[in-house]
Amino acid sequence: MSFRAAFRERYLDVVGSIYIYNEFRGYTSLDRVLEAVRERCPDDLNFQQEIAKHRADERKHYVMFRRWFERQGRMPLKVDSGVGHIDRFIQWVFRCSIEELDTGQIVADPREFEQLCRVIMLTEQRGYAQVEIILRNKVIMSDPILKRIFQIVHKDEPDHFEPYQRWLEQQGRATAKWNERAADWCIHKILMLAKLPALFLDSGRERMERWPDEAGALPAH
Ligand SMILES: [Fe+2]
Ligand SMILES: [Fe+2]
Fold this sequence. Notes:
Blueprint: H1 3-40, H2 45-72, H3 85-94, H4 103-108, H5 110-134, H6 138-141, H7 144-156, H8 158-170, H9 178-201
Helix pairs in contact: 1-2, 2-7, 2-8, 3-5, 3-9, 5-7, 5-8, 5-9
The chain binds fe (ii) ion (FE2) (2 copies).
């Protein structure tokens, strides 16, 4: 295999592995959010439906990446919460992992619930901006299936931050604080400038043995 072909294959492998992890974390974390919203805003069925649609989209994205790997007959690279934008953001804001998030406490404290909405909104806005960059990336666009996947993700993405943004605006709350935007920016830079290259260069990196949606597939956090 030429250097160019090997570079391309590894790069796509790394991008696909980071995405499949984030899509999986996305839809599984939204189960917790939906739980919180049902308690906090029981009458706001519209908001609940929008979150349910968001969850369904993220699951669809996960399945598309899974199929992409399956077609190639290989599993994604083993990654951990270090490559998860939402994992790092939740950790930074709430000082705990997604699994440890206390939904009951978040529902009881309006400030915490608003914070959770802002974290999701910023994560999704970041995701949208990132997909726009990917759609201009020649290496990724050279894979016709990945190209199609990212076009679908791009189309779905606005529906993912708008409901939270609208809700925050309705409450008359600042849609994002400067320090939250700064945290989002830092997390993104760490991912792109440190995590992605490290994964790319780690030639001995193992592959997952099971798909993330199979029980016990992800390492404990
Ligand atoms: Fe997604
Ligand atoms: Fe999304």
